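Protocol step 4 of 6: record predicted structures for both targets in the notebook before any analysis. Target 1:
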Amino acid sequence: MGHEHTHEHEHGPHPRGRGRGPRMGAMDMADAGWGGGRRRMRRGDIRSAVLLALGDGPANGYEVMQRLAERSGGIWRPSPGSVYPTLQMLEDEGLIRSVTIETRRTFELTDEGREAAAATQAERSGRLPWERDGDSDDRLRSLRLAIGQTHMAAKQVAHAGSPDQIDRSIAVIQRARKELYQILGED
């Protein structure tokens, strides 16, 4: 027997093409670059970002991802699918080495890696790997950064806040949303 459809399905392309629904979470909105589609970094940018993150000291893969999210103010959250292969590539190139610390695989820069990180820093002239060409408007960049930082703070409240703190946080965010629309409505 056949199945007759009497309802509509809400399917839409996921930003990464895995067929998930069309909804976007707050971080996806911050990553969307204001023009639709999730922000993705080029391989060379990911390589540079990982080198710079390890310049802060040894870290495991998860810590590298956290450092990059924090450094970008939440604007860019690298995925394990981009960070771990990059770590392996940098290890194969002799720029980092892995050591086991308390049963965790930790990565640290080699002497050559420190030189590469310094060269990367100089080559970028202060421009961070997650900053794209076209992001030259400082005000827009500041707005994006503020959104990412607010998102990170809200995640922490969600994780560690009391029910009252969560309720108060929701009210703050709802007021902010209303005030943003009021700003747009001004002449």
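Target 2:
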Amino acid sequence: MARILTVVTMALALGGCGLHYWSRADASLDTFNRESAACAKESTTSGALDRDRYRDCLKGRGWIRAQHQPPIPAGWYRGIE
């Protein structure tokens, strides 16, 4: 029983270790960098980035956000997190 509990605990702990990345079909890193910068600019007021607005902006442009652990799949890009 203790062994099962240890395995379950480790699985839960490791499940949240990945970083979040963004992807969109047929988009390049240059496209992501350009749109990420535009969303960051639109989401900044008084010098502070509103992360929720930034994420909503990218989602509105068709990007999806998902958590990944290395190795990161091709076509996934790290945004402002």
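Step 5 preliminary note on target 2. Residues 2-15 form the longest helix (14 residues). The chain is about 45% helix and 15% strand.
Proceed to step 6 after PI sign-off.
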